[in-house]
Amino acid sequence: MKKKIAILGSTGSIGESTLKIIKKDKKNFEVNLLTTNKNINRVFKQAKEFKVKNIIISDFNSYLKAKIKFSKLKINIYNDFDNLNKIMKKQNDLIMSSITGLSGLSPTLKSIRYTKKILIANKESIICGWNLISRELKKYKTNFIPVDSEHFSIFSLLDQRKNDEIERIYITASGGPFINLPKNQFSKIRPKDALKHPNWVMGKKITIDSATLMNKVFEVIEARNIFKIDYSKITILTHPKSYIHAIVKFKNGLSKFLVHEPDMKIPIYNSLYSSKNKTYKTNSLNLDILNNLNLKKVDHLKFPLVKLLSKLPKQTSLFETALITINDYLVYKFLNNNINFKTLIGLINRISNLKELQKYKKIKPKNIDEIYNLRGYVSSKMDSLGI
Fold this sequence. Notes:
Strand order of the largest sheet: 4-3-2-1-5-6-7
Number of strands: 12
Helix content: 40-55%
Radius of gyration: 21 Å
Distance between the termini: 55 Å
């Protein structure tokens, strides 16, 4: 029997990679939902290829255009995720949640009840709304797998062992394109330079986060939430080759690490298939890299944003939403050439330390409205600063 899967954010890099894997195994998968924000031509091309009968288009104007442009196709077109009950009358086997940004939190929460297993690639959802997600997972007895390469690695290394067996987690960072660039050259960095990641092919925003190492700050928060481990027990190591993705040191004296090529299709593939007998063809083990891992502690002078971790509250709070919003806002300013790279880093640090935002460190989000309302407030605050 075919596994029913929905792909939220099918036109993004994770969604596209998921479909590439399914394309090679159509006999075992039935895609019953694709979603996009605005990329209507791409999502309908995907729907045609995979014979998908349901599409959600989040942007209202794009939804209206699609209703006209594709009216002759026998495809149900919806504008929001409140229609999931019409699409998934029986529980799905899988849902891939890969909508980028905080916009992915609401669809993730709404979809959990409709699937046996959810694969979450949306880091903002886990960072800002993990307490809400975990509540829904427990309520509907839905299994969860993190898709981010680092967290999938930790998940795999644990292999159902208990979190209290962990002594320390090490998360690796490539260091992006500027790992060897002198700090005094950072003010000269332009968006085109920062978008040249040496190992990974990713979206623009996450590529900039990789260059500032802000992505590692977020990944540590994710690890804290998912694996219930204190920040003090999580270490970031630079590893320019992106071959090792995580190391787990257990209390019994054993340490494990997981290696794979810097290709997101590998964790996606292994998330899709529960069977360990499936084969994904990759290159032979790279002994040259293994003999020169070059693992180092992060240079805090070059990458000062990692020091934000020491100022974060120990428990999930609304402050993480403020931090995500500040970073998103400033990254897009950098991508549009409004600020330079050095200023980007400086402003993230300065604005996240504003006194009026510190109170949110003591407030745990009770519902999604609190998260989205704070995002709106912080965005307005950023506008008022005239950056």
